[in-house]
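Co-fold these.
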Amino acid sequence: MSVSVAFEKARAEGRAALVGYLPAGFPSVAEGIAAVKAMIESGVDLVEIGLPYSDPVMDGPVIQRATEQALAGGVRTRDVLHTVEAVSGAGVPVLIMSYWNPIEKYGVDAFARDLAAAGGAGLITPDLIPDEAQEWLAASDAHKLDRIFLVSPSSTDERIAMTVAHCRGFVYATAVMGVTGARDSTSSAAPTLVSRVKAAAGSLPVGVGLGVRSGAQAAEVGAYADGVIVGSALVSALADGGLPALRTLTQDLRSGLTP
Amino acid sequence: MLPDDRGHFGPYGGRFVPEALIAALDELDAHYRKAMADPEFTGEFERMLRDYAGTPSLLYDATHLSAHVGGARILLKREDLNHTGAHKVRNVLGQALLTKRMGKGRVIAETGAGQHGVASATAAAYLDLECVVYMGEVDTKRQALNVARMKMLGATVIPVTTGSRTLKDAINEALRDWVTNVDDTHYLLGTAAGPHPFPAMVRDFVRGIGVEARAQCLALTGTLPDAVAACVGGGSNAIGIFHAFVPDADVRLYGFEAGGDGIETGKHAASITGGSHGVLHGSRSYLLQDDDGQTIESHSISAGLDYPSVGPEHAWLHDQGRARYQPVTDAEAMDAFALLCRTEGIIPAIESAHALAGALRVIPALREELGHEPTVIVNLSGRGDKDMHTAGEYFGLFDSGEVIG
Ligand SMILES: Cc1ncc(COP(=O)(O)O)c(C=O)c1O
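Predicted complex below.
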């Protein structure tokens, strides 16, 4: 199921889509699956499953600790694919978010094939730019997967246009310069970035990530973006308050987006 | 001429970083290319290297060592005599000067044992830049003296408490800082690795080692050396001495990686001889990883070689067969360390002792092959003062309770 399904549904309801991130294997593979299901039941439109990696340079402390714990618990790449398989029947599209080396090690085409077979929609690649992505471009075409690259406030207009041209599904706008982590105020750079991206993106949806942690913030971001991406806040909720806290936060985020 | 304009050495190198850093890398690349073509910059860089760092370093005819070993003429490139005691001063002065030129006021650096951190803090003090050094928490404890040095020089040292709490995690943390503060901050990376343009830029800042050694060898012996040997951590001192010799097809190039307890034990830092292809810290190269592509922690008695990957140009030189890479174990390196102390009165860095140990190993076969006594240049990349704690423990100098001296 392509992620466009999620954006179309949200658009038809006159709101932005809620995109929720959780790493696979946190706190364990089975509990991670239960958490993603809880998040889906509580209103996310699109799921990102993080592939835990030893050197997560884009992540702040919350996601670092969670993925470290997942790795210490022995999570493997095949467990991440298994997680996708276990949740992909629940009615919302499921993406994997992964640093590049684990994919390259698995074999780019083999990973694309197995991700598609598991019912996954595609891949978000935080440290792979289209310039280096020839193999992934070919594999994602061959296996009909979405590919989501990132743009940032420091991207030139040329790079935004080039990146958007290589995205399928949506484009991921990292709205602040920095690593993942919940922030008290959303970035003032975000609306500017989104309008720059929209100028290049045509009908391709733009998702905004980094920092959102409440329904009120989601509402703010949802006013100008097609998708509101939430990661660290959900991971914190799960880590500190288990499934009940995860459900409560997801519902709050979703109600912030409901017109 | 490699790399290509996107930083590729064949299949290696490139840029595997978040898009947020691309603008900064492009800016750095543009400034570095312009600077290298600007006599004002290159002149000032040369002046600093000469008047402040003390280069050109000597090419020392190690007659006592050669006589002891027998059958070879060993020349030592004395980078240990540079200010701060290693080749690294060349790289930090180049990058710090470039930072000034870019109008940035802050540098950040990663460090393992503290050598690159101390060098960065030195350059920052000299050129009046704010300096923040990321160091794995484990290393701050192992290397308290270097932490004190950095602080003395005015740097802020931030212990890194994530991941394995060692060098690779310090690099991760420095990259995170850079993404956040890229407008006013330069990441002063300590070796010839990382995303383009770092591998090429660092090489160009340290290539004086080989340029000098080549001319010095010609002046001293009338010919080029038969072989050049260097230790390989991330690869800066090795690429620095190799680069000028790469076109000299008859000069054999040897890179010696840290073999730790031995490749077969899995406890080593030999990325080329004991690792496989992959992507780490922004470029494609050889690295130590498990079946899932998770980085494996490296092991070496030498903190400066204790890194699970290697710069992309070495991966390329290896695949081309232009340079040969071999592992040297902790024990072999420490034997060579002791030998140089006793024969020449030179205490080398344990990193550099790997280069010497490797050279001693290949000399007999080389003599056989050439039919004459080979001339071998060994890059003595640093001095061993920083290693006396490790050496003292290794050789049991602290055991007896008596005062040594
Ligand atoms: C004296 C010395 N030699 C060699 C190295 C290894 O680094 P590289 O391979 O970049 O030369 C270090 C690193 O700290 C060092 O201090």
